[in-house]
Glucose-1-phosphate cytidylyltransferase (Amycolatopsis ultiminotia), 262 residues
Amino acid sequence: MKVVLFCGGYGTRMQSGPGDVPKPMQLVGPRPLLWHVMRYYAYFGHRDFVLCLGYGAHHIKEFFLGYEESASNDFVLHDGVVDLLSTDISDWRITFVHTGINSPIGERLRRVRAYLEGEEMFLANYADVLTDAPLPDIIDRFAASDAGASMMIVPPPATFHCVELGSAGLVSGITPVSEMPLWANGGYFALRQEVFEHLPENGDLVADGCAELAKRGRLLAYPHRGYWRPTDTIKERIALNEAYARGEKPWALWENDRVPVG
């Protein structure tokens, strides 16, 4: 299945200084966040990517045009020649499409529709969230349904607490938001061509497309209570890098299943 990745937003909450490095290109270990998301899909056999570019597009293009396999793969160096022992992206197909600097997500998807022609179903992602969700199960459940879209949902990640008030202003209970019977958009989608029927010009994938499908009973939810980490802020990025340094990488399902060089 083709995988559409939305990687053209400003990511203003992620900026820590001057420059125009887009959020998906912020490093997690030796590789950008975008690479980790793509590697997750590739692990499950989905290696045909459509990148919806915008802000900082040249950073993404330059990264892949000058890709260094040796940064994350073992190799043998002899007589000035590098022999890779494994590879990351040799079997990936990546389509780079500039979808506008200020385009909302729905409009970015509309602008790559031509590259999805003939695809009954395809995958989509914000390119800034890591997870260990069982992608084959997500796809199988969606394929078995007649829904127009599937959205992975997760417990809200907020650290706030909900306060229940009793009489006379006395607090009767305190519950972490993550333990409330609430679900948040997890950013991992499986879509059918039907979604385009509900995306207006300059519309949003969730607020317009998914919301309209939900009204029609055509939106399938996939609850996931496992590992899921957003990287919307500098604090979240730092925490992710610290976890990576400790060897805590639940999303890196591929690390014990290297792709051999043919």
